[in-house]
Design brief:
Number of helices: 4
Structural class: alpha+beta
Bound molecules: zinc ion
Number of domains: 2
Largest sheet: 3 strands, antiparallel
Oligomer: single chain
Radius of gyration: 34 Å
Strand content: 5-15%
Shape: rod-shaped
């Protein structure tokens, strides 16, 4: 590529007309080139921030779609507030089957006591 060409161009940053020495030259001066570069960088940062924001909104809207989730959390909070749990309640709280709970009681990994036929977990 020859550098001895004279190409009339308009600066892409300030719009001033200038004679380019190279075909790929886009700006009238180094100052405009670096300013345009900074502007592009800023714009891409804004774009990134916007993309992040959109992704966040997408994430929260997909959470909102599963309407059963807040209900489950509500149950968990209530169960946690109780001092004693039945086997069933403990299995819901821990997200395991009632048989797992009963096995854990047998292995004495969970403290449990019996009131009549009911097993109560502290
Ligand atoms: Zn310029």
């Amino acid at each position: 590529m020859s550098s001895n060409i004279s190409l009339p161009k308009f600066c892409e940053y300030c719009g001033a007309s200038f004679i380019a020495k190279q075909v790929r030259t886009q700006y009238c001066s180094h100052a405009c080139a670096s300013r345009a570069y900074k502007q592009r960088k800023r714009e891409s940062m804004v774009l990134n921030a916007l993309t992040n924001e959109i992704n966040k909104q997408k994430g929260s809207s997909s959470k909102a779609k599963s309407s059963t989730l807040p209900l489950q959390i509500g149950n968990h909070v209530n169960l946690r507030d109780k001092d004693f749990l039945s086997v069933i309640e403990a299995s819901i709280l821990l997200g395991v089957s009632r048989w797992t709970i009963q096995r854990l009681i047998k292995q004495e990994k969970i403290f449990a006591s019996k009131i009549g036929r009911r097993t109560i977990i502290t």
